[in-house]
């Protein structure tokens, strides 16, 4: 039989072609909706609620302008006449768009709307009173890979389960037992780098580099206890791993780039495998009871119960691996940042340096290491640490995501919108802190000091259920380290120092922090 065209093949072909066209149309329509129509609809929605911001640009959102503002700001140091007025440099995009669009405004992170909220009252709603409507923001896969799938990156029930397991490990009474170890570590650091090199004279040290050793050693001991030496190897590799993350974060993100077998990527994969292998071996030993110690360490850690012994009975090997990666990541750069800025601020304000030193000598003596009983008596030092965290919060912002449509300050925030809370902007706000908001004045944190009483005016460690679990550890380390440095040296900024705080995940000095120490 002959047909003018190859029936039934032509029917099938036509149907297939039509289906392919339909799929293509649907895919293109969806893509266009995600990248163009939805952002425009959301823009109009927010405008109706009086919330405006830089207009949405196809695919890139506000990213190109944001990067331009940040790069431009980082090309100039902070103004010498107001050195602590660093918000326009650190969060240049916030500073710029706030002037144009008001305190609550919106920007576009690609095609995702990001609402900027900097009123303490609204932040309180997001973190505390209406926290169930907001979820922790999903970090980029590259950052998650380095940070580890630990507390910082978990959600819902799994986060709650882990937080419950880990909370007792970070109890202040447990952590206080670390004080002698922290003191000995800082004493060794001083002897090796400052006291011996200075030999009666002066020595210049880049404190942004130098301080890194303390959190690294403290987290290693707190996590691994008696198995500190094995832990050190893991965390040394993790240090290298994290340095690639910081480097990657400072570059423009290219989707899929991390899967290419470049020299650096191959090293990152190798490090990842090695860290997992070592931690896996260690954890399996710990869980089968075939390990040296774990539990209470009566040696270096003065009887502190290490984090491993809280995790081993309750978590799988993989979970422990991810959690330890997370501790290392969350605890190292943040503390280094705090110590660096406190030292820089004290070098700039010698009156506070002298006052804090007198207190340290009164409480701890001319030579002795600080003890856990000394710490609450170091009031001036506590005020200095708080004032540093206010002006130079290591984590400059927090991000949440609306789980569902939710009312915030009279604006209906659609599900999926990200909420960015710029910690540094709240800390520098003259309406919250008064006319001297950008001056270094630790006295505002005195018991009878004049400071805002509203919740979330001061939140260097975040707030609500997801408040920093490591804050007690950080404050212990910071007080002991600064007390020892003050007790044994006078210091001032090197002429080579340029005051240029910038944020690369964590707030750090763009050109390092060279400080001149003179042993006392
Ligand atoms: C000066 C030092 C530190 C600062 C300023 C700091 C700041 C913060 C902030 C702001 C958050 C909340 C993030 C958010 O809600 O989005 C946070 C969470 C967290 N921090 Fe810290 N941190 C410091 C030290 C540490 C240390 C020493 C550790 C542990 C070893 C640590 C572990 C964590 C963890 C695990 C979380 C996630 C908690 C959760 O989501 O349940 N931090 N930190």
TrEMBL record:
<keyword id="KW-0812">Transmembrane</keyword>
<dbReference type="GO" id="GO:0004497">
    <property type="term" value="F:monooxygenase activity"/>
</dbReference>
<keyword id="KW-0349">Heme</keyword>
<keyword id="KW-0479">Metal-binding</keyword>
<dbReference type="GO" id="GO:0005506">
    <property type="term" value="F:iron ion binding"/>
</dbReference>
<dbReference type="InterPro" id="IPR036396">
    <property type="entry name" value="Cyt_P450_sf"/>
</dbReference>
<keyword id="KW-0472">Membrane</keyword>
<dbReference type="GO" id="GO:0010268">
    <property type="term" value="P:brassinosteroid homeostasis"/>
</dbReference>
<dbReference type="Pfam" id="PF00067">
    <property type="entry name" value="p450"/>
</dbReference>
<dbReference type="GO" id="GO:0020037">
    <property type="term" value="F:heme binding"/>
</dbReference>
<dbReference type="GO" id="GO:0016020">
    <property type="term" value="C:membrane"/>
</dbReference>
<protein>
    <recommendedName>
        <fullName>Cytochrome P450</fullName>
    </recommendedName>
</protein>
<feature type="binding site" description="axial binding residue">
    <location>
        <position position="468"/>
    </location>
    <ligand>
        <name>heme</name>
    </ligand>
</feature>
<keyword id="KW-0560">Oxidoreductase</keyword>
<keyword id="KW-0503">Monooxygenase</keyword>
<keyword id="KW-0408">Iron</keyword>
<keyword id="KW-1133">Transmembrane helix</keyword>
<dbReference type="InterPro" id="IPR050665">
    <property type="entry name" value="Cytochrome_P450_Monooxygen"/>
</dbReference>
<dbReference type="InterPro" id="IPR002401">
    <property type="entry name" value="Cyt_P450_E_grp-I"/>
</dbReference>
<dbReference type="GO" id="GO:0016705">
    <property type="term" value="F:oxidoreductase activity, acting on paired donors, with incorporation or reduction of molecular oxygen"/>
</dbReference>
<dbReference type="InterPro" id="IPR017972">
    <property type="entry name" value="Cyt_P450_CS"/>
</dbReference>
<dbReference type="GO" id="GO:0016131">
    <property type="term" value="P:brassinosteroid metabolic process"/>
</dbReference>
<dbReference type="InterPro" id="IPR001128">
    <property type="entry name" value="Cyt_P450"/>
</dbReference>
<comment type="similarity">
    <text>Belongs to the cytochrome P450 family.</text>
</comment>
């Amino acid at each position: 039989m002959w047909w003018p065209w190859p029936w039934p093949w032509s029917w099938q072909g036509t149907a297939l072609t039509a289906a392919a066209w339909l799929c293509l149309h649907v895919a293109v329509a969806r893509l266009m909706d995600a990248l163009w129509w939805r952002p425009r609809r959301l823009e109009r929605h927010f405008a109706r609620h009086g919330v405006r911001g830089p207009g949405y640009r196809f695919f890139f959102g506000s990213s190109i302008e944001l990067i331009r503002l940040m790069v431009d700001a980082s090309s100039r140091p902070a103004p010498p006449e107001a050195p602590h007025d660093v918000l326009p440099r650190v969060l240049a995009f916030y500073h710029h768009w706030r002037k144009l669009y008001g305190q609550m405004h919106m920007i576009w992170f690609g095609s995702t709307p990001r609402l900027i909220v900097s009123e303490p009252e609204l932040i309180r709603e997001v973190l505390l009173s209406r926290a169930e409507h907001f979820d922790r923001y999903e970090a980029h896969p590259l950052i998650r890979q380095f940070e580890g799938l630990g507390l910082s990156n978990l959600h819902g029930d799994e986060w709650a389960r882990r937080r419950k397991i880990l909370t007792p490990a970070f109890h202040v009474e447990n952590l206080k037992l670390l004080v002698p170890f922290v003191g000995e570590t800082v004493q060794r650091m001083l002897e090796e780098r400052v006291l011996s090199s200075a030999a009666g004279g002066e020595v210049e040290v880049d404190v942004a580099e130098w301080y890194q050793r303390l959190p690294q050693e403290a987290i290693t001991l707190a996590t691994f206890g008696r198995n500190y030496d094995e832990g050190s190897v893991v965390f040394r590799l993790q240090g290298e791993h994290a340095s690639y993350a910081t480097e990657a974060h400072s570059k423009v993100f290219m989707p899929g780039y991390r899967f290419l077998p470049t020299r650096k990527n191959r090293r990152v994969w190798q490090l990842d495998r090695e860290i997992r292998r070592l931690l896996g071996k260690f954890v399996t030993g710990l869980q089968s009871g075939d390990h040296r110690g774990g539990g209470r360490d009566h040696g270096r850690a003065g009887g502190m119960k290490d984090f491993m012994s809280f995790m081993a009975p309750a978590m799988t090997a993989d979970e422990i691996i991810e959690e330890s990666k997370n501790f290392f990541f969350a605890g190292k750069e943040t503390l280094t940042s705090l110590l660096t800025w406190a030292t820089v601020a004290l070098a700039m304000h010698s009156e506070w340096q002298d006052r804090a030193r007198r207190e340290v000598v009164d409480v701890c003596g001319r030579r002795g290491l600080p003890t856990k009983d000394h710490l609450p008596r170091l009031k001036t030092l506590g005020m200095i640490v708080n004032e540093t965290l206010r002006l130079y919060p290591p984590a400059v912002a927090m991000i949440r995501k609306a789980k569902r449509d939710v009312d915030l300050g009279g604006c209906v925030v659609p599900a999926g919108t990200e909420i960015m809370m710029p910690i540094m902007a709240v800390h520098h706000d003259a309406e919250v802190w008064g006319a001297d908001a950008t001056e270094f004045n630790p006295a505002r944190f005195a018991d009878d000091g004049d400071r805002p009483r509203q919740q979330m005016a001061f939140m260097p460690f975040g707030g609500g259920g997801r408040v920093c679990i490591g804050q007690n550890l950080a404050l212990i380390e910071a007080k002991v380290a600064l007390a020892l440095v003050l007790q044994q040296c006078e210091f001032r900024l090197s002429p080579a120092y340029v005051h240029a705080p910038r944020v690369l995940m964590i707030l750090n000095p763009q050109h390092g922090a060279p400080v001149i120490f003179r042993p006392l």
